[in-house]
Amino acid sequence: MPAPVDLTAKAALGVSGLDDVLGGGFTRNRLYLLEGNPGTGKTTIALQFLLTGAAAGERCLYISLSETEEELSETARSHGWTLGGGLRIFELIPPESLLDAEQHQSLLYSSDLELGETTKAIFDQIETLKPTRVVLDSLSEIRLLAGDSLRYRRQILALKHYFSRHGSTVLLLDDLTSDRADKSVHSVAHAVLRLEELAPSYGAERRRLRVVKYRGQRFRGGYHDFCISTGGVRVFPRLVSLEHKTVFRHDRVKSAVPELDELLGGGIETGSSTLVLGPAGTGKSLLTIQYVMAAAARGERAAMFVFDEELGLMLERTRTMGFDLAGLRDRGLLTMTQVDAAELSPGEFAHLVRHQVDEAQAKTVVIDSLNGYQAAMPEEMALILHMHELLQYLNRQGATTFLTIAQHGLVGDMQSPVDITYLADTVVLLRYFEALGQVRRAISVVKKRMGAHEDTIREYRITGNGLQVGAPLRGFQGVLRGVPSLVEGGEAGLMETGAP
Fold first, then answer.
1. Exposure of 153 in the CB half-sphere (CA atoms within 13 A)
2. Cα–Cα dist 445/443, whole Å
3. Radius of gyration of the chain from Cα atoms?
4. Which of 50, 264, 486, 492 has its Cα between 20 and 30 A from that of 327?
5. What is the per-residue pLDDT across 194-223, written as a single tens digit (0 to 9) for each?
């Protein structure tokens, strides 16, 4: 005997992230609409909804007016699912008379008769099985049988009242293939979910969903990215940082480079974000790795999300400097994720970061670089909002975050592809400059919200042992412009040419 169904509990869909968006799932004994163009994942979500109910001992029914049972079984097998048990598929095939050309010309076989036979067949299945969860796929066929909007709305209302008397939670699928933008079901349904598929100029398709309405229920509004992979649909709820407040101790973390810590006023505060700006090759990634190594030395976990550089090359390059990132990874102190900007949506990236912070307890997070993050959403207009929520979330979790941006140009005026300096708590500026016939590098801190910092400019070198930072450059002016002029003090502050 199937387990008794708790009609006071919501009907969970079993779709990762979607139940969170819906506030726990569907209120039982109601009718819901899931709409979207073909290929957006409606059938997959519907099967997950029924399989979740069947696993809990509920009787579930899939009424198909468009796909055969074999096609549905094939879809299930592609995800590793087996249909059966408490889930029954009712394939509602058209009468054989529809295949007879003479019947098409007969006035005796009207759309009224066909619609009536379809409805009767559905009701017979409900009476026989008495399911608690029902999927009707799809409304396009019923809309065509109804012929006009008035009869279509009346038919949906009749189905709604019938299902409510039998205690069924019903999910209607609509593939939006009708020429008319008929919104009749929107006013009838208890909730409406809309699935969308976007095709960027380059890269994989992007899918997102939105809860259009949900009567009497708080839900997470706005668009939520989702993907279809083996195992079903995964939804990445839009990140709302205010929902993730935690209490943590505010300490200062150091880089193990004393001169760099002095420049930063003693270190960087936990739960803050640091933006490292500079042209290509100035050592932005290396600076963040210094803090990753320092975190590992304290026994803390770190996570790096690398957009621009191939991980194998980064591991080899840093190994020659004495940074054993592979060893830290093997010991579980570091997670390195290669991010393919063309294949990942912003919502999925935020989900990856959250997983490292929530599950792996990473306390140092590196995003290298924001140029790659921007490339992940070239047609998105809300990059700043995405970054704002992500940084606020990380700050509230007590994670120390480092972000890099490669600026355009090498010397002189620099342009950033995206300006988020106002979001970061600390901004570190790296520059090339020419002095005494050599190209040198300079570092300065132009902003630090939490505490004081040096207002000096220091030279630094990339050596076989990592970063080496020199004394303040007090004998030059115009270093940030790239071509400084020598003032009193001569070479004061410059690092020696033969410095290791």
1. 9
2. 7
3. 30
4. 264
5. 999 988 777 788 899 999 999 999 999 999
Say how many residues make up the chain: 500
DSSP state of 323: -
Homologous superfamily in CATH for domain 243-486: P-loop containing nucleotide triphosphate hydrolases (3.40.50.300)
**Region(s) of the chain under CATH 3.40.50.300:** 18-238, 243-486
Residues 50-106: pLDDT tens digits?
A: 999 999 999 999 999 988 999 999 999 999 999 988 999 999 865 544 445 454 444
Q: Under DSSP, is residue 78 helix (H, G, I), strand (E, B) or coil? A: helix
- Please provide the distance, in angstroms rounded to a whole number, between the alpha carbons at the two ends of the chain: 78
DSSP string, 110-168: -HHHHHHHHHHHHHHHHHHH--SEEEEE-HHHHHHHH-SHHHHHHHHHHHHHHHHHTT-
Distance CA 302, CA 329 (A): 9
CATH number of 18-238: 3.40.50.300
Place of tokens 């400019």: 457
At 18, give phi and psi (nearest 5°).
-75, -35
Neighbour count for residue 443 (Cβ, 10 Å): 24
